[in-house]
Amino acid sequence: MAKQRQKSPRARLFVALDLPERVRNGLIAWQRGALTDPALRPIAPEALHVTLCFLAYQREREIERIAAVMRSVGARPVEARFTEEPVAVPPNRPRLFAADAKSEAAIELQAELSDRLEAERFYRPEERPFWPHVTVARIKPSKRSVSDRRGRRRGPPMRVETPPGPLPAELLEPFDAVRVTLYRSNLRPTGAEYVSLAELDLPPAGVEKR
Length: 210
Fold this sequence. Notes:
This protein is α+β, with helices and mostly antiparallel strands. Helices cover 23% and strands 32% of the residues.
């Protein structure tokens, strides 16, 4: 019984910036017209966000503490602006395309959140610099070889003959992130499902905190 009590259920968690509705709807409309190559799979609407810190699996009993750390960064405006051309990652044989969201405020917020989560041992920062972006499409895997099927490995990404076109002018205007959210990611055969566990609403740019 003692060993069972020590084993807390775990949850797959991450913290993200949520987009305003008009921006998310704009990306959804763009996906319909721009992702014409059969190798491209559009990202689901609920997954269109800017991931700040991926926390991997954490004990469920720590969720309230993680939420408190997230809220401790304080609400502040986070303005961003998309660049016109989607970015292939990696460039030579992409596995995804992302909308580059230029934002010094997001970089500063992520750095502060990263430090606080690391101090509480909830997060191990990545070696690469933080890049604010929204993943808009993933590349379907190619058919596996016989050896791959035996080893249960996924095939390499398919080749994209027609990359996504540029974002429309209305999506290149600056926008304000609406909140910071702690999400639980439940992995399903049909794809990940996201559940909001805690939120920190953000004010728009130009609004002074009272």
